[in-house]
Amino acid sequence: VLENQDLQDSIKPQKVEFHSLNFNTALHWQPGWAREARDALYFVQYKVYGQSTWQNKDDCWGIPSHVCDLTQETSDIQEPYYGRVRATLAGVYSKWSLSCRFTPWRETMIGPPMVTVVHSNKSITVKLQAPHSPYKRKRGSKITMANYYDLLYQVFIINNLVDERHRVLVYEGKDKVIKIQDLRPGVSYCIVAKTYVPVLDRSSAYSSRQCTVL
């Protein structure tokens, strides 16, 4: 019995956490500290805070992976959720490991906008699109993150002639089309942008660089 107890403790999943980007939400965990824990299988349950019963996540029932997609299960983005995971190995089950409380609206990370760059001889026009959420309208089009938050965009220009690490903020606001004027012909410029959510005081990572020579 003692050996079973030891195995139970040593395969118990560690660091059970929700990771979420644009409401694409997954539960992540790390295997227990026993070397054998590499061969464990995992079972995932979730529930809304305040509910008494846990729901099984059927796709993540007896899986070898250390991640479980709960995007659809957490689609009520104002609700707080919990996830929990247990492991099994050689007929022994660990106790459940619980995540912290997770509220998608408050805790999801926001992605950068999609950036398109069109140049003329002395100016660059930057077109921005809010990142998409995984959720769809009835007609099938994806709902953007601008539906859920007031988003601001920060647009930076990089003059490769001067210093390709130096980003200069040229615009911050809600516009989706920005014109940057009085640039030098023959110079290579790159544009990167961020999404900023004022209500959460949170910025996205930078978008990938869109570069052009005027």
TrEMBL record:
UniProt domain Fibronectin type-III: residue ranges: 6-96
Q: Which SUPFAM superfamilies match?
A: Fibronectin type III
What GO annotations for molecular function exist for this entry? cytokine receptor activity
* Principal subcellular localization: secreted
Task: Please report the stretch or stretches of sequence annotated as the Interferon/interleukin receptor domain.
Answer: 108-212
What Pfam families would the database entry show?
Answer: Interfer-bind, Tissue_fac
- Asked if the record carries the keyword Lyase, the reply is no
Q: Which Gene3D superfamilies match?
A: Immunoglobulins (2.60.40.10)
* Record InterPro entries: FN3_dom, FN3_sf, Ig-like_fold, Interferon/interleukin_rcp_dom, Type-II_Cytokine-TF_Rcpt
Mind listing the UniProt keywords for this protein, alphabetically?
A: Disulfide bond, Receptor, Repeat, Secreted, Signal
Gene Ontology annotations for the cellular component aspect, listed alphabetically: extracellular region; plasma membrane
Localization terms from the record: Secreted
- Which PANTHER family would you find in this protein's record? INTERFERON/INTERLEUKIN RECEPTOR (PTHR20859), INTERLEUKIN-22 RECEPTOR SUBUNIT ALPHA-2 (PTHR20859:SF51)
Q: Per the similarity annotation, which family is this?
A: Belongs to the type II cytokine receptor family.
Q: What does this protein do?
A: Receptor for IL22. Binds to IL22, prevents interaction with the functional IL-22R complex and blocks the activity of IL22 (in vitro). May play an important role as an IL22 antagonist in the regulation of inflammatory responses.
Q: What is this protein called?
A: Interleukin-22 receptor subunit alpha-2
Q: Which organism is it from?
A: Oriolus oriolus
